[in-house]
């Protein structure tokens, strides 16, 4: 994929991986970012004066549709992660809705943009999933379920769009230093806070340029040949404290 001369929309582009992608791409592309926090978007605009910003909620994808005719690369990056104790019952699900933000928005934005992307000579949909889509962390069950959904949806999307100009990429990053559920990480004393978001963004751009349709956490490479028994063992190891 040519990583220059594009018009790229990055959801959740004002912080973390999204912002670092914007920094890299802004050198040779026209960048559009959206998010819910105006102050964060304004900060991003100060760093990257050439970008277009819009206060928008991915739970209402139509808020972003004014850009659809121009974009040739859609990066579904917006997401949240919550620690949830399922023993609390439905009470534990109160608050920010991970299903709507992480999964539904990715599905609806992708499908809304497809007719516009198909008209472009070269186009792409990039879905940010997670290594936790493959081996879940019990403390963040809804997040893991949504990312597993993104993983499955992306595979189906890639298959259905294989005869179009739209390339479909999935990014399965490791733990990244970002705002994502950092409060919980500190609470449980997680020592591995992850790789820097700029390093993660650089690996994504490299993967796009090389048409690597699944841009993975290197640790996931071994899971491609793993049995279900191997994956179950890894799950038990990861969730020993839960």
Strand content is 15-25%
Number of separate strands: 9
Q: What's the total helix number?
A: 7
Low-confidence stretches: none
> What is the CATH superfamily?
NAD(P)-binding Rossmann-like Domain
CATH topology: Rossmann fold
Oligomer: single chain
- Helix and strand composition category: alpha/beta
Quick one: biggest sheet? 7 strands, parallel
Q: Tell me, rounded to a whole number, the average pLDDT.
A: 88
What's the short version?
By secondary structure, the chain is of the alpha/beta class. The chain is 37% helix and 16% strand. The chain has one domain (7-238): NAD(P)-binding Rossmann-like Domain (Rossmann fold), CATH 3.40.50.720.
Describe the protein's architecture and organization.
It is a single chain. This protein has helices spanning 16-25, 38-47, 98-117, 141-160, 182-187, 197-209, 228-238; strands at residues 7-11, 30-35, 52-55, 73-76, 123-128, 166-172, 176-177, 195-196, 214-216. With 242 residues, it is an alpha/beta fold. The protein has one domain: NAD(P)-binding Rossmann-like Domain (Rossmann fold, 3-Layer(aba) Sandwich), CATH 3.40.50. The strands form two sheets. A seven-stranded parallel beta sheet has the order 3-2-1-4-5-6-9, sandwiched between helices. Strands 7-8 form a two-stranded parallel ribbon. Helix 1 (16-25) crosses helix 6 (197-209) and helix 3 runs parallel beside helix 4. The mean pLDDT is 88.
